[in-house]
């Protein structure tokens, strides 16, 4: 198996956010977490509605969100070393029958078992390289497993080790709300399929990869496209070649930061609040709009602030500040660079001189990058240890459980997208794959100083 497991590189520093949280809660080190419940087992929260402790703990979870059934006691009570050994043994037994994918934001204790580590789209593509694997175990969140299911062969089982690992941002664009929004926009713009004198339809829907399969299916049915944080500009250009405006969901910040960098004025980017009639806008504003931004955000990236950047610059003269484009616009504007997780990783790898980096993205990735690049000083802009709530729910206990179940011939926690959603969802993904940036342009999504 051609693994690209970046966790296989030497780790001179403990990259485990879990260890940091345990040490903080035990009082053996100074620091703070966003909630001491992080030190508990994720199974303590599986039967309760909510995202669990971490960055999204204050977000409202939709009714009917998937819940995880009880994890067998043996996995809840096993220690870290035992789980580590059991996961390795199960993987050894399964061999090429299984491929394990680990998202950049996943905890170290899980990522070390991944055959591939990457962002959601890189991982879905990695799964494509293993058409003969019977099972794809996706150590990420729900929408990522759905995307892998869209792209994998029907016989392959995509498994999410903890069904409660959703994504608060993806949940902010509910299919019923999006359908209603589309109807209201049709009241303003008329026939949504009619082309004007320039050959443009009124609106092209664009969804961030971080959205449910239902939303990707909606976009596919309405001539739209999916984007990632790596190709958002290219995708918006694709959309503006076909439509007068873009409806962008679920992340307002990625939409705003990308469109602003392309020269779209802020006053032509109204927000669509699904709880208000016409999104809280009026007909004139919508008529003048170039990008209609859905009222969604990532609770991890919303934590970063201009004050944190000012502090980093004051305490570390010459610091290079790189943030993810899911951060608010003011934060992107105050940073030196903005780009996807892959951009951040490559920027650090490409630095030839010892450099101080202040990074605005999920703490697990930042801590792992710091461990892998001891020649640089790398720290998270947010000093509070607060991981993505839902990624954090994939504890090694769940990974051991799903792998040992496969060894026993049982597929648990399979994620399957219904065919009527999968077909248009795949179409929206294929449009994205076909959209290419102009030759020579390296996409950073936001700004580069
Ligand atoms: S980091 Fe944000 S967008 Fe990513 S899974 Fe967590 S809540 Fe969702």
UniProtKB/TrEMBL annotation:
Main location: cytoplasm
Pfam families: NadA
One GO CC term, this protein: cytosol
Region called Disordered, residue ranges: 49-70
Keyword Cell wall biogenesis/degradation recorded: no
Protein localization: Cytoplasm
Record: residues binding [4Fe-4S] cluster: 167, 298, 388
Pathway, per record: Cofactor biosynthesis; NAD(+) biosynthesis; quinolinate from iminoaspartate: step 1/1
Cofactor descriptive note: Binds 1 [4Fe-4S] cluster per subunit.
Keywords: 4Fe-4S, Cytoplasm, Iron, Iron-sulfur, Metal-binding, Pyridine nucleotide biosynthesis, Transferase
Cofactor list: [4Fe-4S] cluster
Catalytic activity field: iminosuccinate + dihydroxyacetone phosphate = quinolinate + phosphate + 2 H2O + H(+)
Top-level taxon in the UniProt lineage: Bacteria
Protein name: Quinolinate synthase
Similarity section: Belongs to the quinolinate synthase family. Type 3 subfamily.
Its EC number(s): 2.5.1.72
Function: Catalyzes the condensation of iminoaspartate with dihydroxyacetone phosphate to form quinolinate.
Binding site for iminosuccinate: 103, 120, 208-210, 229, 324-326, 341
PANTHER family per the UniProt record, alphabetical: QUINOLINATE SYNTHASE, CHLOROPLASTIC (PTHR30573:SF0), QUINOLINATE SYNTHETASE A (PTHR30573)
The UniProt record lists the keyword Metal-binding: yes
Gene Ontology molecular-function annotations: 4 iron, 4 sulfur cluster binding; metal ion binding; quinolinate synthetase A activity
Gene Ontology biological process terms from the UniProt entry: 'de novo' NAD+ biosynthetic process from L-aspartate
Protein's gene: nadA
Classification via InterPro entries: NadA, NadA_sf, Quinolinate_synth_A_type3
């Amino acid at each position: 198996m051609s693994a690209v497991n970046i966790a296989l590189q030497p780790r001179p520093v403990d990259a485990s956010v879990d260890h940091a949280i345990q040490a903080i809660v035990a009082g053996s080190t100074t620091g703070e977490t966003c909630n001491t419940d992080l030190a508990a087992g994720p199974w303590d929260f599986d039967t309760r509605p909510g995202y669990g402790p971490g960055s999204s703990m204050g977000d409202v979870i939709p009714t009917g969100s998937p819940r995880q059934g009880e994890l067998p006691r043996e996995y809840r009570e096993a220690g870290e070393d035992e789980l580590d050994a059991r996961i390795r043994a199960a993987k050894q037994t399964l061999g090429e029958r299984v491929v394990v994918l680990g998202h950049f934001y996943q905890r170290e204790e899980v990522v070390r078992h991944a055959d591939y580590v990457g962002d959601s789209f890189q991982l879905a593509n990695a799964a494509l390289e293993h058409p003969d694997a019977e099972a794809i175990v996706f150590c990420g969140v729900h929408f990522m497993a759905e995307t892998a299911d869209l792209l994998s062969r029907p016989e392959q089982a995509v498994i999410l080790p903890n069904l409660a690992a959703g994504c608060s941002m993806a949940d902010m664009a509910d299919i019923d709300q999006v359908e209603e929004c589309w109807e209201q926009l049709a009241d303003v713009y008329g026939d949504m399929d009619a082309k004007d004198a320039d050959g443009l339809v009124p609106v092209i829907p664009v969804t961030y990869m971080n959205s449910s399969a239902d939303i990707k299916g909606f976009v596919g049915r309405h001539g739209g496209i999916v984007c990632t944080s790596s190709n958002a500009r290219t995708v918006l250009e694709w959309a503006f070649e076909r439509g007068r405006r873009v409806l962008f969901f679920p992340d307002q910040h990625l939409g705003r930061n990308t469109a602003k960098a392309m020269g779209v004025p802020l006053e032509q980017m109204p927000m669509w609040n699904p709880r208000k009639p016409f999104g809280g806008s009026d007909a004139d504003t919508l008529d003048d709009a170039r990008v209609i931004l859905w009222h969604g955000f990532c609770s991890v990236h919303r934590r970063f602030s201009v004050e944190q950047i000012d502090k980093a610059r004051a305490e570390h003269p010459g610091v290079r500040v790189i943030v993810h484009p899911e951060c608010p616009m003011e934060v992107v504007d105050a940073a030196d660079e903005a780009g996807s997780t892959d951009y951040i990783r490559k920027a650090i790898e490409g630095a030839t001189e010892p450099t101080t980096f202040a990074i605005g993205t999920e703490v697990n990735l930042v801590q792992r990058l710091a461990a892998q690049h001891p020649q640089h000083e790398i720290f998270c802009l947010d000093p509070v240890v607060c991981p993505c709530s839902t990624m954090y729910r994939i504890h090694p206990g769940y990974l051991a459980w799903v792998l040992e179940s496969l060894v026993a011939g049982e597929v648990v926690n399979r994620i399957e997208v219904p065919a009527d959603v999968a077909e248009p969802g795949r179409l929206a993904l294929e449009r994205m794959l076909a959209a290419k940036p102009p030759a020579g342009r390296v996409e950073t999504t936001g700004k580069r100083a």
